[in-house]
Amino acid sequence: MHVEVINMIPHSLSGEDQMDSEPNITVNPANPRHMAASAFTPDPLLSGNAPIYVSTDGGHTWALNVVMPGGNVTNDITVRFASHSNILYAGILRGGTVDLNILRKANFVAPGLMTVVVNKTNDDQPYIQAHSHAGTDRVFVGENDFNATPQSATVDLSQDASTAASFLFDHVEPRATVGQDGPPIRPAIHQDGTIYVAYFGWRGSGGISFTSDVVVARDDHWAAGATRFADLIDTDLLPGMRVATGVSIPFSLGPFLGHQRSAGSGLAIAVDPKNSDIVYVAWADGTSAATYTLHLRRSADRGVSWSGDLRTIVQAMNPTLAINDQGEVGFFYQKLHNPGSGNRWQNQIEISHDHFVTSTKIILADTPDNNGPGPTLNPNNPIGDYAGLVTVGRNFYGIFSANNTPDLANFPNGVKYQRNVNFLTKTLLDLSGNPVPVSYDPFHYQIRWPEEEREHHEPGEEHDIKYEAIELKGLRYEKLEIKELRLSFEDPRRGRHTHPRHHHGHEHEHDERGPVRRLGEEIEEIGRRIADSVSRDDDGDDHRHHK
Question: Which of 287, 288, 282 is nearest to 246 (CA)?
């Protein structure tokens, strides 16, 4: 397992000090080297349109591409590649008008704005998912539609997202509410046509909290029928299974945990890509900051019955879930620790292959809860109302926002900054070397397995060759004298494979020695040529001496 953490602010923007919060990420399943991400990052050139982050090298470097219409910075935004078409889709609340737009773009790195497919008014928190099927892209956008109150939980959906006319708006809440549902409506797509959606059904209110049900609805046929999201019936004979009832969801736009608000958005859902019967849901509830707790539960029968809590995490926010092609579950969250005595945010992911009987815990960043003196955007929302996590193959790709102090002690698994920093003085620097105030940046992380790296590299690339080292010392050209030649063929990945891959009932073996052997043979051939050349030179010298 290899862990990598990258600060995404490009080097050219080293002087920026914004609250780049509430991030989201997508990886193109058809080409995992292509990635797009979003955050509350304004266009530095103030063009009147907003940027996304783009990468074409597997997330190792990032740049901005201004493609979002409607203001220098968007409001809520999520992005998703369809699974086969290479098309990037986005759901945004536009800057200025706050209209909900569903957008698409065939070439995500090309200049020019994304095409507006849908424009709606009076909606909140669009959360997009997309999948290619039968030659078209199926798109599902969970959103809180205030035009549909009091039953506002809604999914905007299309069986062919190329046209506005193809979109329908399905109100999934069948029960009475206190006036609306909670902000997060989260869809999850399985390739067999099973669509899950999770939402908070607000049933009552008091103080800053709403008494809520945690509901999961399901459609078994791409939500393409006349009656949608009605395939999972609860004991009250209404669609949508209540995973938990009567929980308290705090909604506070002021500081709640540390500097971070609680806007009632802590909800996530994920379906196993190999088995649509298996689905996980996570949410946050509590009556106060001290009791605010994440819960993680599982269903193995398509949402009919649910486990008890597999994990509970106190004083944590932004649960995020994804399941890889091995059935391993990634559960990311941001936990406040040392509350009241040096607040810090611990950005952590747990990975489990056995339903969280055991899990591998990885701390990606442990950063101060300190907004810094510079930023004015979103002072009570520095990390945002959600983070992002997706999978391609076995690998996990995620994003979170955190305090950007360049202190290596804050990153237990290391970190790479693109922007200009001084790690010795723990200082951000602009391009002229002047100090820059601390703020919040998006951080991309990857958790990869070696066999996945071999399977997903581009044709013609020999990734294994980077593990071989050649050191030549004392090279001279009079007779090409090499005093020392050191070759290292040890692959540091060996011994790390704890989960061998299986294909068609037998273990898939990979010849780790292939590129090493080829390299050795090439060096031997060079050596033979050198020896022949030296021999010919000696013969020539002898002939000249006898003339």
Answer: 287
Q: By three-state DSSP, how is residue 3 classified?
A: strand
Give residue-wise pLDDT tens across range 41-55.
999 999 999 999 999
What fold is seen in the domain 2-455?
Answer: Neuraminidase (2.120.10)
- Structural domain spans, the chain: 2-455, 462-546
* Element holding 308 (H helix, E strand): none
Beta-strand pair 2-7/469-473 = unpaired
How many angstroms separate the CA atoms of 448 and 27, rounded?
Answer: 14
Which residue, 435, 410, 408, 407, is CA-closest to 420? 435
DSSP string, 62-113: -EEEEEE-SSSS-SSEEEEE-SSS--EEEEEE-TTT--EEEEEES-TTSSSP
Exposure string of 76-101, with b = 16+ CB inside 10 Å and e = fewer, is: bbbbbbbbebbbbbbbbbbbeebbbb
- The model carries a pTM of 0.83
Tell me which residue has tokens 């949402």: 303
d(CA 210, CA 267): 15
Model pLDDT for residues 99-129, shown as the tens digit of each residue: 999 999 999 999 999 999 999 999 999 999 9
| Spatial CB neighbours of 46, under 8 Å, sequence gap ≥ 6 | 72
Report which residue type is found at 339. P
Long-range contacts, stretch 494-503, CB < 8 angstroms, 24+ apart: 496/1, 496/450, 497/450, 497/451, 499/326, 499/353, 499/449, 501/451
Coil, helix or strand for 400?
strand
CA 104/CA 139 separation, integer angstroms: 10
Closest C-alpha among 436, 440, 444 to residue 377: 440
Which band of pLDDT confidence, cut at 50, 70 and 90, is reported for residue 258?
Answer: confident
Contact 16, 24 (CB under 8 A): no
Check: CB of residue 351 under 8 Å from CB of residue 328: yes
The string of DSSP codes covering 229-271 is: S-SSB-TTSSBSEEEEEEEEEEEEEEEEETTEEEES--EEEEE
pLDDT confidence of 536, banded at 50, 70, 90? low
Instruction: List beta partners, residue 81.
Output: 88
131-179 residue pLDDT tens? 999 999 999 999 999 999 999 999 999 999 999 999 999 999 999 999 9
| SS3 per-residue string spanning 426-494 | CEEECCCCCEECCCEEEEEEEEECHHHHHHHCCCCCCHHHHHCEEEEECCCCCCCCCCEEEEECCCCCC
- In a 13 Å sphere around the CA of 74, the CA atoms on its Cβ side amount to 31
**466 CA to centre of own chain:** 26
- Burial class of 295 by CB neighbour count within 10 A (0 to 12, 13 to 18, 19+): buried
Which two three-digit tokens encode residue 86? 């290479």
